[in-house]
Amino acid sequence: MSIFFHILVTNVLPMGIMVALGIVLQKSFSLDIKTLSKLNFYLFSPAIMFDLIYNTAISGGVIAQVLLFFVLFMAGQYILVEAVIRTRGYSPSMKSAMRNSVLFYNSANYGIPLNQLAFAGNKETLAIQVLIMMTQAFVPNTYGVYSVNAHKTDMRQVWKTIFSMPIIYVIPLAFLLRGFNVPIPQPIETPIGYLSSAFIGTALITLGVQLGSMEWRIKRSLLVDVSLSGILRLVAGPVLAALIVWLMGLDKMTAAALIVSSAVPTSLSSVLLAVEFDNEKEFASQAVFVSTLLSIFTVTAVIFFLQIEV
Q1: CA-to-CA distance for 85 and 246, rounded, in angstroms?
Q2: Taking the model in full, what pTM does it have?
Q3: What is the pLDDT of residue 167?
């Protein structure tokens, strides 16, 4: 019961308050959600990724293990979601929206606090979560951009859009600067810190603004799709992760960190992509919102079965 209330108070409730503020602001002032999504894509997300990679110590062995896990996990999730897509017979836009809702999970503003809670601030498990967050930041800004645009524009424009995403340059730059011990000048370090701190709040407000701008009535067909997305993300995700870490023979702490990292709800990136490129915005918003609410029960169950002491 203590785990349940810890997750409720430190993760779900604060995020729920921020989302609610976004809803209230949208209802009161009709905010420009396109502007908010651009702030997230081009400023706040690259800043927090650079800040965490540059300042978190990660060994080469851990990097190799986590990257192998991530490749296997994403492949497994892709197979599962493709089975659902083919069974449901989705339109091209809905195919990409469903894939994004399952493949992109909230490894940053949900995963980082959850990791610190579940593992009592352990630096090794935090490093694992930062790596997962790095890969989860990279994929939506490459494959994610491709998936929501491939069916409605030419490939030249798609690649142009991908290469305009700052995150694909920020990740290698942060690793290079840290690897060669290059100090960040104070006039640059301070703005990066400010932008990094703004990421979580702005992303959650953006989700609230999108939720506030849509109809709250859910069609039966959309309810089924949101439910399928939630099951694949919250239930199939950690089960698949447990199978992979068992096959890889990872040590207990690393395995637990990776399973917990896979149990988090759908990423805000799926909403930001949907908004930025006008692709099934209502489904994307509801998938994030519903999976975030339900995750309080599923994440608690995952931590319970792993017998993690908090």
Answers
A1: 28
A2: 0.79
A3: 78
Q: What is the CATH number of domain 2-306?
A: 1.20.1530.20
Q: For all residues of the chain together, what is the average pLDDT?
A: 83
Helix axes of 186-212 and 281-306: crossing angle, nearest 10 degrees? 110
DSSP string, 115-179: HHHHTTT-HHHHHHHHHHHHHHHHTIIIIIHHHHHTTTS-HHHHHHHHTT-THHHHHHHHHHHHH
Average pLDDT for 72-97: 92
- Going by C-beta distance under 8 Å and a sequence separation of 6 or more, which residues neighbour residue 160? none
Contact between 240 and 262 (Cβ < 8 Å) = yes
Distance of CA 148 to the CA centre of its chain: 16
pLDDT at 157: 66
Report the sign of the C-alpha dihedral through residues 29, 33, 34, 36, in that order: positive
Q: What share of the chain in percent tops pLDDT 70? A: 84
Domain ranges, ordered by start, for the chain: 2-306
Look at residue 137 and tell me whether its pLDDT is greater than 80: no
Q: Are 9 and 310 in contact (CB under 8 A)?
A: no
CA angle 143, 62, 309 (to 5 degrees): 105
Looking up tokens 């792993």 gives 306
